[in-house]
Amino acid sequence: MDDLATLPESIRQIHQTLSPYIKQRQDALHVRHVLAAHLNSNVNSGDSILTPATLSLAEPASEVTQGLGFPGVQHDYLRSLQANLKAQRDFAAISSQRDELESHSEIQARTLDKVASKEMALHAFLDLEKLRQRKERLRIIQDVVDQLAQKPAATQDYLDLKSVDVLKNIGSLPPVPPSVMAPIEHLQDSERTDLKSLVDRLEKSVLRAQLLLKKEQKLLAKVRTDAGTPRDQQERDVRQQALEATRNELINWIETELGKAGESPAASEGQNSSIPEHIGKEYIESQLASIKQIYGQYLEIRKRLLVAATENLTTALPTEVGIEDSSDMLIDEPTNDIPNSRNASTFSYLEDLVLISNEQKSTIQQRSYLTSSLAKQCKEASKDLDRLVDESHLLPTYPMQTVNNPQRKRLGEPISFEQEISNSDKPTLSTRAKAWVFAAESSSIATKEAVLERLEDGESALAGAYQTLKDLQRLLGCLPEEQGAEEGRQKLGISNIGGVWSTLDGNLGVIRTDDLTSD
After folding, report:
1. DSSP label of 52
2. What distance in Å separates the CA atoms of residue 416 and residue 399, rounded to the nearest whole number?
3. Do 230 and 264 meet the contact criterion of CB atoms below 8 Å apart?
4. What are phi and psi of 182, to 5 degrees?
5. DSSP designation for 313
6. How many angstroms separate the CA atoms of 316 and 75, rounded?
7. Per its UniProt entry, which superkingdom is the organism in (predicted)?
8. CA-CA distance, 439 to 161, in Å (whole number)?
9. Does pLDDT of 223 surpass 70?
10. C-beta separation of 239 from 334 below 8 A
11. Residue 379 CB neighbours (<10 A)
12. CA-wise closest residue to 234 among 308, 338, 354, 353
């Protein structure tokens, strides 16, 4: 009590309020024993020991038996307890299954991560191995290029025509290829001759002709050194000029064939659709006969040129020249001193002819290059247009209709270049571009028509709405009446609002007065 006197007033009031409920330790134990005995007598009748399992702390593993000797409240409690235990068991089973699934998924995810890491490592190793192999190939190529650069053939003067070492052991003029004279056995291979191989062969022929020319110049120099008289010098000059004319004719023929070969790809691409796949044997024989005839004319013209250049030579000086190919070449030395005025008059134009031939050669080369480049660009543009046609949505929707106008084919009527191009069998880039232009214009026209239709619908809807608003204003009395009535109403101070209520016109009081008087 002395301790309570020192406490504040509020705490002492709380202690007095709770003092009936605060017991000593012994009193609390006694109350517990009494309650336990009471519960034991109610739960296990006939037994003197209380059930060890407390009902409020039931576990899923515990078992509760529902007897018939319990009152109604205890019976309901035991039934609820059984339901609680069953729910706890179900919850535990579901939780264990979920834990097993989660553990299985975690294990599977770990295995997948391990496999993915292994695959990534394998891909990285394969990429590294590919890079190593590529590096090794490039290193080998670089080593070979370095070795080739160290050889004498890599120098700039190795293929110089002025060098004498290159002209050693050079064969004579090659004969006519047997593949040209013999019938063509494989037609498809001859029709589809590779342009690159043909150009390579022509370049080899030109190089061989140049080397033969150099050999002839060497032989002329040798003969010139052997002869010491001016007469022999003049005769050798005539022979040299004749050989130069022959060489120029041969080079011009080769350049002409090269130009024709350069023009062949564009022509074959433009006429691929019209050429048949298989040509008969008669056509092949006729082509071979024409080729033989052209080559025979070339040989005859070459012989005539040699005879005309050496017309003033009456005797010949035979000179045998040893060649590794076991072919002999005889050079006739002239002995006649009478100059040929006709040949002398033609010699002054040889330099101009050489310049013209060089210009013609450059023109042919430029023409072949331009033809091949234009054909390549047209082919690439055609591929791009084909790809765009496949990806486009305008061309299938708005195709350009081709109309054959019979009036264009009247007798005497000129046909323009545009009509001729448009009437060709194979579509060109211009016609394909026209298809795009036509599709774009058709799309724009269709869009404009749709917009105009929408505008017309909007205008009609707007006019209807405006008319509806007018009707509503007329019904609500917002519209003014005639101008005279409006001025009279304004003078009298009466409102000019009309409508369904304007018939009353403020006479409600008069009507009410009349009704009252009548009553």
Report:
1. S
2. 24
3. no
4. -75, 155
5. -
6. 151
7. Eukaryota
8. 60
9. yes
10. yes
11. 13
12. 338
- Please provide the DSSP assignment of 352-410 as one string: HHHHHHHHHHHHHHHHHHHHHHHHHHHHHHHHHHHHHHHH-SHHHHSPPPP---GGGG-
Alpha-carbon span 260 to 252, nearest angstrom? 12
Can you tell me which residue has the tokens 């007329």?
A: 474
**Which residues have CB under 8 Å from 259's CB, separation 6+?**
364, 365, 367, 368
Rounded to the nearest 10 degrees, the angle between the axes of helix 350-391 and helix 429-476 is 40
| Residue 198 · residue 261 · CB < 8 Å | yes
CA separation for the pair 333, 236 (Å, rounded): 7
Distance CA 207, CA 204 (A): 5
SS3 331: coil
Question: pTM of the predicted model, to two decimals?
Answer: 0.26
Q: Phi-psi bin for 493: left (phi > 0), alpha (psi -120 to 50), beta?
A: left
pLDDT recorded at residue 85: 87
Amino acid at 113: D
Distance CA 34, CA 126 (A): 85
316-372: per-residue pLDDT in tens?
A: 434 333 333 433 333 344 444 444 555 555 666 777 777 888 888 888 888 888 988
Asked whether the beta carbons of 91 and 112 are under 8 A apart, the reply is no
Query: Phi and psi for 121 in degrees, rounded to 5?
Result: -65, -40
Separation in Å, CA 400 to CA 25, 383, 425, 439, 467:
110, 20, 16, 7, 46
Q: Of 382, 386, 492, 400, which Cα lies nearest the Cα of 440? A: 400
Tally the C-alpha atoms within 13 A of residue 13's C-alpha that lie toward its C-beta: 3
H-type helices in 227-309, by residue range?
Answer: 230-270, 281-309
Could you tell me if 266 and 374 are in contact, meaning their C-beta atoms sit under 8 angstroms apart?
Answer: yes
Helices (H), 151-229: 178-181, 187-191, 195-226
Q: Provide the token pair at 381.
A: 């543009």
For residue 186, count CB atoms less than 10 angstroms from its CB and return exposed for 0-12, middle for 13-18, buried for 19 or more.
exposed
* Residue pointed to by tokens 């519960």: 39
Q: pLDDT by residue (tens digit) across 268-303?
A: 444 444 444 445 677 788 888 888 888 888 888 878
Phi-psi region of 482 (alpha: psi -120 to 50; beta: other; left: phi over 0): beta
CB 241 within 8 A of CB 313: no
DSSP string, 101-163: HHHHHHHHHHHHHHHHHHHHHHHHHHHHHHHHHHHHHHHHHHHHHHHHHHSGGGSTTTT-TT-
Q: In the structure encoding, which two tokens stand for residue 427, read together?
A: 């579509």
Integer angstrom CA distances of residue 46 from 42, 69, 289: 9, 12, 138
Longest dimension (CA), the chain: 172
Determine what percent of the chain is predicted with pLDDT higher than 90: 8
